[in-house]
Design goal:
About 15% of the residues lie in helices and about 20% in strands. Helix 2 (about 30-50) packs across helix 3 (about 345-360). It has 4 domains: about 5-55 and about 320-385, no CATH class; about 55-130 and about 295-320, no CATH class; about 130-170 and about 280-295; about 180-275, Ribbon (Seminal Fluid Protein  PDC-109 (Domain B)). It is elongated and about 110 Å long. The longest helix has 21 residues, at about 30-50. It has helices at about 5-20, 30-50, 345-360, 365-385, and strands spanning about 55-60, 65, 75-80, 85-90, 100-105, 105, 120-125, 130-135, 145, 160, 180-185, 185-190, 200, 215, 235-240, 255-260, 270, 290-295, 300-305, 310-320, 325, 330. The protein has about 400 residues and is α+β, with helices and mostly antiparallel strands. The chain is built from 4 helices and 22 strands.
């Protein structure tokens, strides 16, 4: 760990290094921007050199993974909120208990994604878990994932079923779950047509209420005097006008509706056998069988696990630590304590000096030359054998003890 060196020290040293006659134009916001830019670059150098100074390790059981609702053996691990870059992923064989060795997992390519021939593997994905888009015509079993939409649970949301979700079409006629077919090929009453007992007609054209439902209780001869709602010949089944079935409507038990070209058939009358919810009742976010998953904004690690390994281990680099500076208070974050050697804080100071000269419309000159030399020295230091960690390899590849 390096010596104490604050961001304010880097800033004040940069003013001397820049060697400009006036730095009133250089604000605290400028200094912070330059510091953060340099921090990202230096931190990236350590990570790309596979240096483990900033590495963090976490262990997680297979039971904590989200299973893919479509692809067999595919699972998803929510990345930590401070995740920056993956260093290493390993798995522990289910046989051998806690004493079983950890082995390195391979990375899936685009060609073998989801099928690496029995070899555990991983791949980074975004913040959305792959899932079916909700389809109201499909029945879902427990444990499946679906994605929502503009009117089905919200855009960019993932829902998991915790029970069987019926197809929404169960609500629509002619499904017998909710509906009874009363009559087909129904017509409007016509005074020039005789009707047998037990014939349904719709009112209209001046005879009864338009689209009201009538049932003949006697043979009805031709003539207008016998037209509905004549109680001698007709029973008023529904005094209210029948409307075409709508998926957006709810219906109480005992409600008559007309079929449509999509639901049931045209000129067919249906009677609700029980209370009928709107078809949207079964969609995500409405029916109690759905659980909304909290989407991880950091993203997920897709894991192909054909065996069911008991424990996984992930080594990763967290986000670089936050840094601040208070020019007026002559204080700031101790960046010297954040790095394993003393060179990075000096790079911070020289980068600020370069930025000051550029903003002052002056050539960076020797300041930039010295900065590049420092960066090269830091890079060379990382490449030394005594500083660079061992490359990743599967030390158990031989399959025979001892594993060395």
């Amino acid at each position: 760990m390096g010596i104490s060196y604050t961001t304010y020290q880097a800033y004040s040293n940069a003013l001397l290094i820049a060697d400009v006659p006036n730095t009133n134009f250089w604000t605290q916001a400028d200094a912070l921007f330059s510091l953060q830019k340099t921090q990202r670059y230096v931190y990236k150098m350590y990570c790309e050199a596979d240096d483990d100074y900033f590495r963090t390790d976490i262990y997680f059981p297979a039971s904590s993974l989200l299973q893919d609702g479509v692809r067999q053996y595919m699972n998803y691990l929510a990345l930590p909120s401070d995740f920056y870059r993956l260093r290493q992923l390993q798995y522990q064989n289910v046989y051998g208990g806690s004493n079983a060795p950890f082995r390195n997992a391979d990375k899936m390519s685009g060609q073998n994604y989801g099928n690496t021939q029995q070899v555990p593997a991983y791949r980074m994905i975004g913040s959305n878990i792959p899932a079916y888009q909700y389809n109201p015509a499909i029945q879902y079993n427990s444990g499946q994932y679906v994605s929502g939409g503009t009117s089905t649970g919200g855009v960019s949301t993932i829902w998991q079923t915790n029970s069987v979700i019926p197809a929404a079409t169960i609500c629509t006629p002619p499904t017998a779950t909710y509906w009874t077919t009363i009559t087909t090929n129904i017509t409007y009453y016509n005074p020039e047509t005789p009707y047998a007992v037990g014939t349904y007609v719709l009112g209209g054209g001046g005879y009864g209420t338009t689209n009201a439902l009538y049932l003949s209780i006697l043979p009805v001869p031709i003539g207008t005097t016998q037209a509905p709602p004549n109680a001698t010949y007709w029973t008023t089944v529904s005094a209210s006008a029948l409307a075409p079935y709508s998926t957006a409507s709810t219906y109480t038990a005992g409600t008559y509706v007309l079929g449509t070209a999509v639901y049931g058939t045209l000129n067919t009358v249906f009677l609700s056998a029980q209370n009928v919810p709107a078809a949207s009742y079964f969609q995500p976010g409405t029916y109690p069988g759905w659980t909304q998953l909290v989407i991880n904004p950091t993203g997920y690690l897709a894991l192909y696990d054909p065996v069911g390994y008991q424990t996984w281990a992930m080594g990763y680099y967290p986000q670089p630590p936050a840094i601040t500076i208070n020019v007026a208070g002559t204080t700031g974050t101790d960046i010297g304590a954040q790095y394993p050697d003393n060179l990075p804080p000096e790079i911070f100071a020289y980068q600020i000096a370069v930025d000051i000269r550029i903003k002052a419309k002056l050539p960076p000159g020797d300041v930039e030359t010295q900065l590049k030399q420092m960066v090269k020295t830091l890079s060379d230091t990382m490449l030394k054998d005594n500083n660079k960690p061992e490359p990743m390899k599967d030390v158990f590849a031989s399959g025979f003890a001892p594993w060395v």
